[in-house]
Amino acid sequence: MPYVYAVTRARGCAPSPTLYAVRHGALAAVVADHEAPAPTPEALRRHEAVVEGLMGDGPLLPMRFGSVSDDVATLLAERHDELVAALERVRGAVELGVRAENNGTATTGTEYLMRRLAVARAHESLAALARASVRGAYLVDEDAVDDFRARVDELDDDLVCTGPWPPYSFCDTP
Amino acid sequence: MSRETTLTDHALVDLLDRLLAGGVVIEGDVTLAVADIDLVHLSLRAVLASVETLECPTSTR
Question: What residues of chain B, 23 to 42, have a C-beta less than 8 Å from chain A?
Fold first, then answer.
């Protein structure tokens, strides 16, 4: 069953030898003929590499890892307008993540909470530079990425800015 | 656009956060959202397996 990597605009979708496009209306799904891989770290990185390789071709909505469908065209048809709207919301922007450095290695509860607090304190200042934000993820204009990184650095030495990511956290459709 | 991080720089925790919890979700009967379910399934199996391993030697009492 075809494995789906991303939804893009039909125009500008230029798949590679291993990827092909299923089109419907203004949309294209970028798919490959392989099964959903087991969720190993290597498979996650391979998946991410494919999606990041598509990032220069125009706005895209990444699929959740492990998405397969034998009828991608119907998916595009049923959710055409909401997916088109979602693509326009992320056009020209990337996702940046903000978290405490060495996240997850806190050895005490206090340390963990201090890290959470650092992220929370930075939020208002960072959100002002972003189009949208959700749970430590910020949707940032491509030409504002450097400013955003600089702001993270100046706010707190212990914060790390990850990405640019495909807009995984901004794919919600109503 | 600057790309200061490369793929291999992505921490696994950041990949998991996004690839398994974000992205467009296919709904309906064409869906096989295997990944996150598999992870839970695998970890449950691992726990069950170790409990079994622990209990088997004493099960003959």
Answer: 23-26, 28, 30-36, 38-39
